């Protein structure tokens, strides 16, 4: 899910390498700005969406590299075989269409 403000998008994502539904506690929120992306401290259980970086994470130049930071070895392998251009195009498309499906 993506929420887009002026130049910042909030992406909610979870790793899923199976056909089974993802547990609620596996989802993370990411802040994506034109020059940096990072994992947010807030969760869906919080009353307000706040833009505070999770302490043990780093700033990244894009969503692709941000998602790799917390990914499993299997997920990193899958991501490594996916062309970066594809991931970048999907990210650009999501932010350009301003999909608003965050609850």
List the helices and strands and how they pair.
Layout: E1 2-4, E2 9-13, E3 28-32, E4 37-39, H1 63-69, H2 73-80, H3 84-97
Antiparallel strand pairs: 1-2, 2-3, 3-4
Structural description of this entry:
The protein is of the alpha+beta class. The chain has 3 helices and 4 strands, in the order ββββααα. The chain has a 4-stranded antiparallel beta sheet, covered by helices on one side. The chain is globular. The termini are close together.
- Please give the alpha-carbon distance between the first and last residues: 9 Å
The poorly predicted ranges are none
Strand content: 15-25%
Q: Note the quaternary state here.
A: single chain
Number of beta strands: 4
Average pLDDT value? 80
Helical fraction equals 25-40%
Number of helices, where a helix is a run of at least 4 consecutive DSSP H or I residues: 3
Rg, please?
13 Å
H/E topology pattern:
EEEEHHH
Instruction: Give, in spatial order, the strands making up the sheet with the most strands.
Output: 1-2-3-4
Give me the secondary-structure category.
alpha+beta
Biggest sheet statistics: 4 strands, antiparallel
Shape: globular
Keywords:
103 residues; four-stranded antiparallel sheet; globular
Overview in brief:
The chain is 28% helix and 16% strand.
